[in-house]
Design a protein that fits this description.
This protein has 495 residues and is mainly beta. It has 2 domains: 139 residues, Jelly Rolls (Sandwich), CATH 2.60.120; 345 residues, 7 Propeller (Methylamine Dehydrogenase, Chain H). Helix content is 3%, strand content 46%. The strands form 10 sheets. Strands 1, 2, 4, 5, 37, 40, 41 and 43 form an 8-stranded antiparallel beta sheet that branches. Strand 9 and strand 10 form a beta hairpin.
């Protein structure tokens, strides 16, 4: 016999972030967990807010050409590398506009930078590793050099493979460490870590490449793919190993059988060093790394192998971000272009961004007066993230899908007759529902005010979930939840 359906409240949405069914059965996802969240945040407790946008820094550098390097110098200027047809060029932004600084680099290769002795080193740019004094820009005294002190890694010659052009670098305990770039493919050269002398009283470095190097287990069959200083260690990454270099030397065996294929996936946050491995995203704090990506394991599994080496990460004060490429999960008919996964360190929650363009590199930008975060895109734009309410002046499309609800027993068929949706600034948001094992989404209606009443619905279900979807324009919408205020429990109904 039908009985009144008790009032139900769907609030505190997102307090557990995304928890995907691949890791947890639908019915075990806790209240507050969601199955999908694209371009929204859960930073405001109990509410779903649309993420901030991205805005062009200065102006487009070269339309249609990807950014192949990004770096914030100690002097407070940004450097960006753009491949234009057959060659690459370094541009510098000093707070007003982008200006060409160095030309004739190798096209379509990742260019990396490091700061040493008040100078900026560019790696993997052209026929030489070059160094730029960052005291001032746009002055005849500030030139790029390839010979002499303070650095001349062009002189690095491997005893087996011949000439080596370093592609990776880091400063550790007053020395410069370089690796990669062997053109001959010899395992020894691709596992070799060269180091300079300690910086001298003149602020210069010297090199003895014939003797000042260490081979990082060339017999493991893998090349060095990343270098990162963290705490008191220099970590040397290969695709499936991490070697730890300390004062006493290098750990002789790979105590950490996890690594990365992308140097740009390595990001230092407040709670550790984060990186991507083929099996997921990990946090390193000095012991064995901990996997952090299990709640979104099916998304991580959907990253294509070709994108493993292209994953680019960056951070802000409480979050780590990774660009992971286009993602498709066939079983759920879900797909995201230029997908970025966001991990919040304080709450350990995940959400998803979908940007209009692919992120190539991420970086801090400290102009001297303000700290912001920027990304280099595949369209010739360096953009400030978490800025404004649009993506490069285009509206932000967003959606969120709740967990499945089976109130009063999945065996009983329920009917929702009336509900209230609560929101702020969500005039272009719609609410929809999906029932039982059906794939179709059915429209409930558009949200137009704080309290949105929907009556005479006649939604019949054994289990149900809801989706909010919309477009953010001038103000960021805020979704506060649902109140089901009238319904019927029909009991067991034979189909």
């Amino acid at each position: 016999m039908p009985t009144p359906f008790e009032k139900k409240s769907i609030r505190n949405i997102g307090i557990y972030g995304i928890i995907r069914p691949a890791e947890v059965d639908d019915f075990l996802i806790p209240e507050g967990g969601v199955g999908e969240a694209v371009n929204v945040h859960f930073d405001r407790k109990g509410a779903v807010t649309v993420r901030p946008g991205i805005a062009v820094l200065g102006a487009t550098i070269q339309a249609g050409y990807p950014i192949w390097g990004l770096h914030n110098t100690q002097s407070g200027s940004m450097m960006a590398v753009i491949s234009q047809a057959a060659s690459a060029r370094v541009y510098v932004y000093a707070g007003t506009s982008w200006a060409s600084s160095l030309a004739s680099g190798t096209a379509n290769v990742k260019t990396r930078f490091l700061e040493a002795a008040g100078r900026t080193v560019v790696l993997n740019f052209g026929s030489a590793t070059t160094m730029y004094s960052s005291v001032r820009f746009f002055s005849t005294a500030d030139t790029w050099v390839t010979t002499g002190n303070p650095i001349n890694p062009q002189a690095i010659t491997d005893q087996v493979a011949g000439s080596v052009q370093p592609t990776l670098g880091e400063v550790y305990k007053s020395r410069i460490y370089l690796a990669g770039g062997n053109t001959n493919g010899t395992n020894i050269a691709n596992s070799r870590l060269w180091y300079s002398n300690v910086i001298n009283s003149s602020g210069n470095f010297a090199w003895t490449p014939s003797t000042d190097f260490v081979d990082i287990n060339p017999n493991d069959g893998e090349n060095i793919t990343g270098i990162k200083r963290y705490s008191l260690e220099l970590l040397v990454f290969k695709p499936n190993y991490i070697y730890r270099f300390r004062t006493a030397g290098l750990d002789p065996d790979p105590l950490i059988k996890l690594g990365t294929r992308s140097n740009e996936s390595i990001v230092e946050g407040k709670k550790g060093l984060y990186f991507h491995h083929d099996s997921g995203f990990y946090r390193y704090t000095g012991g064995y790394p901990t996997e952090i990506s299990r709640p979104i394991s099916d998304i991580v599994d959907a990253i294509t192998f070709a994108n493993y080496s292209e994953i680019a990460g960056w951070k802000d004060s409480n979050n780590i971000y990774w660009q992971i490429g286009d993602i498709t999960i066939d079983g759920d008919s879900l797909s995201w272009r230029n997908c970025v996964v966001r991990y919040t360190e304080s709450s350990e929650l995940w959400t998803i961004y979908s940007y209009p363009n692919e992120v190539q590199f991420g970086s801090d930008y400290n102009s001297g007066s303000a700290l912001s975060r920027v990304v280099g895109l595949d369209n010739g734009v360096v953009a400030t993230v978490n800025s404004g309410t649009s993506d490069l002046l285009e509206p932000i499309k967003y959606r969120m899908i709740t967990k499945w609800y089976e109130w009063e027993g999945v065996e009983n068929r329920k009917v929702i007759q009336e509900l209230i949706a609560l929101c702020e600034k969500a005039e272009e948001t719609r609410i929809m529902y999906q029932t039982d094992g059906n794939i179709e989404w059915h429209d409930i209606g558009q949200l137009k005010k704080y309290l949105n009443y929907f009556k005479q619905l006649n939604i019949k279900f054994h289990r149900i979930r809801f989706k909010i979807t919309g477009v953010s324009r001038d103000e960021a919408p805020i979704f506060l939840g649902l109140e089901i205020i009238k319904g019927i429990n029909e009991g067991i109904v034979e189909q």
